[in-house]
Specification:
279 residues, alpha/beta, 8 helices
Length: 279
């Protein structure tokens, strides 16, 4: 149960706060007076974020490490408990990346790494904090994807991981109902983020590794604001972006139409690439 003395100041544990959605979640939460304990792998970005938030009413602490290291997750939990006495209100396993490539181009190691980062580390983290969350009647927020609805060529590894997240969120939603623990699934569409600049093992590159229709992209700040509204209301699922709502509906109920439109889009991209090469 949330301590009455801090009912308007919650404690969040978020992974993957070095950049992108994780960093923006941290900014908005700390600026709003909440406390965030974050994890990430890139010290320069974490120090810059800490410096940016130093005058905010909320507090930001971080631990540097990799979510694939179970020892690191246990260490981060100990540090969190030292700072906040184990009182966790919201757990957000946000760390993840997109493994790109057709099945014949990837190996089993690529699929394993994608699942280890995007799914298995989430399961470990939730298991690690479950006792704290139950005793505090807190909330678990899962980061899904609209493409958990339908897999696309070159993204099967990523889609498998997000289908797993969706299944986990839906299962825990019902399993934890009587315990007072809320479970929220965030389902983003195309968000302006550096995730498209990260390769098959999460390594950053200057060039975008995938092209999305720019008019569909939702600004990170706006997208995170929508996410936080859904989290605050403890919604079962929060879809981010009107285009995501529309695409999920079409993928579910009109898959033939979606496939036809997607083929046209790929054909257009192919022609554009061919024209660029000739120039």
């Amino acid at each position: 149960m949330i301590n009455s003395k801090r009912k308007n100041k919650l404690n969040y544990f978020i992974t993957g706060v070095s950049s992108g959605i994780g960093a923006e979640l941290t900014r908005q939460l700390v600026d709003d007076g909440h406390n965030v304990f974050g994890t990430g792998r890139r010290i320069a970005e974490l120090l810059a974020l800490q410096s940016e938030l130093i005058t905010c009413t909320g507090k930001f602490y971080f631990e540097i490490g990799d979510v694939l290291d179970s020892g690191f997750l246990e260490q981060a939990k100990v540090r969190f408990e030292q700072k906040f006495g184990g009182e966790i209100d919201v757990l957000i396993p946000n760390a993840g990346y997109v493994c790109r490539g057709n099945f014949t181009e990837l190996g089993s190691a690529d699929y394993k790494h994608q699942l280890d980062v995007n799914l298995n580390s989430v399961i470990r983290l939730v298991d690690l904090f479950m006792g704290n969350i139950k005793s505090n009647k807190g909330q678990i927020v899962f980061m899904g994807s609209m493409f958990a609805t339908r897999s696309l060529p070159g993204f099967s590894a990523y889609t498998i991981s997000k289908v797993g997240i969706k299944a986990l969120a839906e299962g825990l939603f019902y399993e934890l109902q009587d315990s007072g623990v809320a479970v929220t699934l965030i389902t983003p569409g195309f968000i302006t983020s550096d995730i498209r600049n990260r390769g098959s093992r999460g390594i950053y590159t200057q060039q975008k590794l995938e092209q999305t229709p720019q008019f569909l992209e939702v600004d990170t700040k706006k997208a995170v604001s929508v996410m936080l509204k859904g989290i605050k209301k403890k919604k079962h699922e929060q879809v981010v972006g009107f285009h995501a709502v529309l695409l999920i509906f079409i993928m579910k109920y009109f898959p033939v139409i979606f496939d036809g439109c997607y083929r046209l889009y790929l054909s257009k991209l192919s022609r554009s690439a061919g024209s660029s090469e000739k120039q």
